[in-house]
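Help: why these numbers?

___
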Amino acid sequence: MAPKLYLMQASPPCRAVLMVAKAIGLELDIEEVDKEALRTPEMLELNPQHTVPIFVDDDFVVWDSHAIAGYLVGQYGEDDTLYPKNDIRKRAVIDQRLHFENGVLYERCRTASYPLFTGTGDISEDDRDKLIEAYGFLEEFLNGRPWLAGDEMTIADLSILATVVSADLFIPVDGERFPQLADWLKTGKELPYFDECNADGLAKFKEMLPTPEA
């Protein structure tokens, strides 16, 4: 049986896991869930934090997209290029990028978009500036290299890509201000599995955003 992934397509972390699975050629048994389903006794037994994605591989269960991504590469990848086992320094850089996404980029994306999704207002100037500052950090991380952790794509790129393409819908990446980030984003969108993993989710994400007034 294929490993099972519980997800919400609109969620960037869920789409990140989909891309990692496609990058290593792993087929998943995918089940879309909603917030109410995550609080049922069956789902709370899998994940008491009632979050997605949730990954089930036989009798092994793990949640959090970064933990899942690392597991997928280690357990099912033909090689460990996306998340190297023995290059401790390279792995440390990848981990730093992932921690940055979780603690800075994704958090600022969620905070900025909250009033849009809840219909309680527009993005505050402060929250907009903080997300744009996070774009600036990514620009610095690239530092003349094609990928965020060096010369090869890693799980950090796929994870952060899912977040940035979502944030780009309401605070676009300025290609003049952040040319390296814009190029990286374009390259990411050209990955052969990008549309398959993101198109539906981005459409749902966009539907949740308010329609600009004419």
User: Anything to note?
Assistant: Residues 88-118 form the longest helix (31 residues). Strands lie at 4-7, 29-32, 54-57, 60-63. The helical segments are 12-23, 41-46, 65-76, 88-118, 125-142, 155-167, 179-189, 194-208.
